[in-house]
Fold this sequence. Notes:
By secondary structure, the protein is mainly alpha-helical. The N and C termini lie far apart (59 Å).
Amino acid sequence: MNTSQTDPTNPGTNKLRRVVKLPYLVLYGLGTILGAGIYVLISKVALQANIYTPLSFLVAGVIVAFTAFSYAELAGRYPKSAGESAFASHAFNKRFISLAVGLLITATGIVSSATIASGFAGYLNILIEVQPAIAETLLISVLGLIALWGISESVKIASLMTLVEVIGLLLVIIVSLDNLSFEITSSANSDTLASILTGILAGAFLAFYAFIGFEDMVNIAEEVVEPKKNMPKGIIIVLIISTVIYMLVAVVAVFAMPMEKLLASRAPFSDIVETNSHVPVLVITVISLFAVVNGALIQIIMSSRLLYGMSRQGMLPAFLGAVHSVTRVPHKATMLVAVLILLLTLLFEIESLARLTSYIVIIIFITMNIALLVIKQTEARLVRTGQAEKYQGFTVPLIVPVTGLFLLLVFLLAQFL
């Protein structure tokens, strides 16, 4: 047996390959953001916010933006596969904090994949009737095999599916434009201001899940070409594109089809296209399946790289840091992630999984904003005393992590009021 294949201490076979350029990084990020939420959760957000669904997405986007800029600086400073765990290590120098953060973000990826996989059956059943458990098991098994194939192959497949899902979103927007009606025909016209705001915030909490994904990008940093330059660029580009697309899609979803139909839909994009055009439902259904599949694949890649990075730092068992000698992927970490995703998919409902993901991510985002504040203040002190040089890469003003931290705390507390 070739022991170098599984020995994480062998430097010759345990290095990841830098093959991901900026365009692929952007498509990777868009793939996990767009596929993770909008195709699956638009009707769930509408259940909370009704005609104010676009505002829920706007609120969620604003809250996410500040943290995304904090991530952009952190990713440029420390382009490591361990991502948030590495950021926490540099900020707090406490092993238990780094371990906790790493395990939380891994849990996010796993739960998020389970959420996406749970939405797979809704679209698949339009094409062929199949038991959800069977569909989900086959999906995760196939995605696990793709992730084991290799990072270059996986990212190229993910990028292709991202292009398909962006085309699908644009198709939904275009076919609906002629049928937009801004007349309020639902019960929302009799709601009080307090109930409207409550609905918008409740919807924003679910919509927040749809923006999750830019943080996944940092966990393939060791496979990105020129990461100190490309990681910040990629995160910012992805945030801008996804926010614009989400706002447009939310508008057409709410104002171009009957609200009752949207609220009851398990495959909302297929229903929107069917309501507003003569485009065969089969077309958008297939595109939606691509989007759902892509989101899950990217989460598997991210989670396995995070486990690999933490293992390499000595935080997790050494076997998780093993890299296959041929495919050069962390194969054991990938297989473990796939098994955990399958178990969650079969055991929990989609809305519960999405809410759990949002709670975990908010806690992580709060920690990352604090980490950036600590890092920047520590650096300023060391620069003043001549013990270090000022970081010359992408940076944000202190007000960015401070505002991000404040907004996240208020957003989290609002869920319990």
